[in-house]
Amino acid sequence: MAKGLFDLTGKVAVVTGGNSGIGLGFARGIAKQGGSVVIWGRNAEKNAAAKAELEALGARVATAQVDVSSEQQIIAGYDAVIKELGRVDCVVANAGLPPPRGGTLDQTTKDYLTFMDISLHGAYYTLREGARHMVKRAEAGEPGGSLIFCGSLSMFKGLPGKVPYAASKAAMGAIVRTMAVEFGKFGIRANTVAPGYIKTGMTGEATGLSQIDKYFASKTPIPRPGYPADFEGIAAYLASDASSFHTGDTLVIDGASLINL
């Protein structure tokens, strides 16, 4: 029986912050193509709800309460994944914080460093430790793997008052490109997905269009906000062997808002 182009049967993906929003969109896309999904999130109730939703799609799902600001928790989390599922084929470093409020001069150094511990260092540790397992598997004779970072349009545009948010996204973009070059010999690719304005729990009402939704929709050539479902397809593609020669890229999913003058 022929398999689909994005078939993920037998592959295991770790998705940080995968219990809601864009992260859950990534996880759904992988689950729908037959991949096993491991969700890391700090909220046990949201983890359980996401697990039930993905299992209803027929996927094998595991969850863990992992704080990505802790290097040791990330390492232990991967050890548990290998013990339970035997491998890691894809890592989606999606966990992060929403942009801070207030101006740059009003934000404390402590707040800045705490933000970077999660959104920059946590994402880096997540991809680095996932790559360790992929490299080990490649050296044993089975190359391949996909590292994915969830960026934002702040990688390309100024974002007043959001220094740590923009800095973490831009820095991770450089890290991902470096990983693409360094790990390519193992068949491991590394890419960034850069969303535009996406309607999630962080951005307003759960149903209906808020004023902020309507504002961004008015500035987007495809005149609507984005939704987590818009990230299912790109996750399935990047996690699958269909993207085996696609690496070092930043894929913008924004309804063309970035290029709209």
UniProtKB/TrEMBL annotation:
UniProt GO MF annotations: oxidoreductase activity
Pfam family, one: adh_short_C2
Gene3D superfamilies for this protein: NAD(P)-binding Rossmann-like Domain
Oxidoreductase among keywords: yes
Keyword Oxidoreductase part of the UniProt annotation: yes
Stored PROSITE patterns: ADH_SHORT (PS00061)
InterPro entries: NAD(P)-bd_dom_sf, Sc_DH/Rdtase_CS, SDR_fam
Domain of life: Bacteria
Similarity comment: Belongs to the short-chain dehydrogenases/reductases (SDR) family.
EC numbers, comma separated: 1.1.1.-
Keywords: Oxidoreductase
Designated name of the protein: SDR family NAD(P)-dependent oxidoreductase
Organism of derivation: Steroidobacter flavus
